[in-house]
Amino acid sequence: MPLTEAQEFALTSGMDTQLHSHTFDRTMTHASLDELQSLEKPVNVTANYSASYRDDFLLVDTTAGAIAIAMPFNKGQKEITVVRIKGANNVTLNAAATDTINGGATLVIAASYTPVHLKSFKGLGWVQV
Q1: What is the spatial distance between Cα 53 and Cα 57, in angstroms, rounded to a whole number?
Q2: Which of the four CATH numbers 2.60.120.640, 2.40.260.10, 3.20.20.10, 3.40.1190.20 does domain 41-128 have?
């Protein structure tokens, strides 16, 4: 049984989800949970990029120049980790619309291999944790 968008969001956002299934209900099974977790793959970024709520890990190569990443609109209960893995140029994370990142409109990553782990909170924006 494929996951619905609501089930996928519940699992990836830390919300409680039933993990056992019976033929008469439509709750998550252990196999479905394993399937979802196998989908968490890093995204290799080599140019400006618009992150989505499906992204978990962004591995950024700035060898060709500075890179701007547009963060997804903050819906709460999402975590994204961004790491500059190559290059000497900066990575700039840009908040969507009226969102913030650590209270500002942008966050610059200037150091390589220093992960920036962000979590979204409704009403607070993206916060580095």
Answers
A1: 11
A2: 2.60.120.640
